[in-house]
């Protein structure tokens, strides 16, 4: 019984981390202290629960409760590993990262900048957007490349299907077009390639952001389920024990 009470109290403390983020009155101590307590005291509750159960789970409720405990711990450890390694990888893969909430606006600015750079060289070939005239000069080459490859890549929400998503293929494509147009257009191509590189890094940032926060969509509901099951478990035992 003592192990069960101690383990339940530690679980409740671990659950207070979510309340602390939402209720200013609970913001006592630093966030780092609360997070460390959430991790270590939450882990300490596991052996206490096992001691309380006597390493035996005969009833269905006990089995479900212990399974949920394991899933909560596993998802929490997974999130801990993700939050430790993903930010380091992001610094290497996406050094030009932006504030996540502002990524759509940044992408829109990149698209407008690319439109202006391409239209400055191609003129009306870009203004129409489709069915551009074909005169066989290098402006046609740049315009076709921009409308068929660059513009769709910049406009997609998650541009993973485009060949420009891969840095190596992007360099090869831009080099191929560079060899097909006059030197006067090389500066424009360099600008477009730099814009595509920034858009590619933003796509990486979005994907890593999902990894950083997506595990919470599993961990938090499981934690709430665990607390509910603990309450049911306590009430059930109180009804059985006179």
Structure description:
The protein has 9 helices and no strands. It folds into 2 domains: 2-93 and 215-240; 100-211, no CATH class. Helix 1 packs antiparallel against helix 9 and helix 6 runs parallel beside helix 8. 77% of the residues lie in helices and 0% in strands. The chain has helices at residues 2-22, 31-53, 60-93, 103-122, 124-128, 138-155, 167-178, 186-214, 216-240. With 242 residues, the chain is mainly α.
End-to-end span in angstroms?
14 Å
Q: Which word captures the global form?
A: elongated
Average residue-wise pLDDT = 81
Largest sheet: none
- Structural class of the secondary elements? mainly alpha
Number of helices: 9
Low-confidence stretches: 125-135
- Tally of individual domains: 2
Quantity of strands, as a count: 0
Helix content: over 70%
Radius of gyration: 28 Å
- The ordered H/E elements are HHHHHHHHH
- Report strand %: under 5%
In brief:
77% of the residues lie in helices and 0% in strands. The protein is built from 9 helices and no strands. Mean pLDDT is 81; it is low at 125-135.
Give the arrangement of secondary structure elements.
Elements: H1 2-22, H2 31-53, H3 60-93, H4 103-122, H5 124-128, H6 138-155, H7 167-178, H8 186-214, H9 216-240
């Amino acid at each position: 019984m003592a192990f069960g009470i101690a383990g339940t109290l530690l679980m409740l403390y671990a659950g207070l981390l979510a309340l602390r983020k939402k209720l200013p009155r609970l913001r006592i101590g630093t966030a780092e202290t609360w997070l460390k307590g959430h991790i270590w005291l939450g882990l300490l509750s596991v052996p206490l629960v096992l001691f309380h159960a006597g390493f035996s789970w005969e009833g269905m409720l006990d089995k479900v409760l212990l399974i949920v405990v394991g899933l909560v711990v596993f998802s929490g450890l997974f999130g801990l590993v993700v939050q430790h390694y993903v930010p380091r990888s992001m610094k290497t893969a996406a050094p030009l990262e932006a504030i996540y909430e502002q990524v759509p606006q940044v992408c829109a600015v990149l698209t407008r900048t690319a439109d202006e750079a391409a239209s400055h060289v191609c003129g009306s070939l870009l203004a129409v957007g489709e069915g551009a005239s074909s005169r066989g000069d290098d402006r046609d080459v740049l315009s076709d490349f921009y409308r068929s490859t660059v513009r769709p890549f910049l406009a997609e929400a998650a541009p993973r299907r485009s060949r420009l998503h891969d840095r190596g293929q992007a360099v090869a494509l831009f080099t191929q077009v560079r060899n097909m147009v006059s030197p006067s257009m090389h500066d424009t191509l360099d600008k477009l390639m730099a814009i595509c590189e920034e858009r590619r890094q933003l796509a990486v940032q979005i994907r890593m952001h999902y990894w950083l926060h997506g595990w919470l969509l599993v961990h938090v509901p499981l934690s709430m389920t665990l607390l509910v099951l603990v309450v049911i478990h306590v009430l059930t035992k109180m009804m059985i024990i006179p």
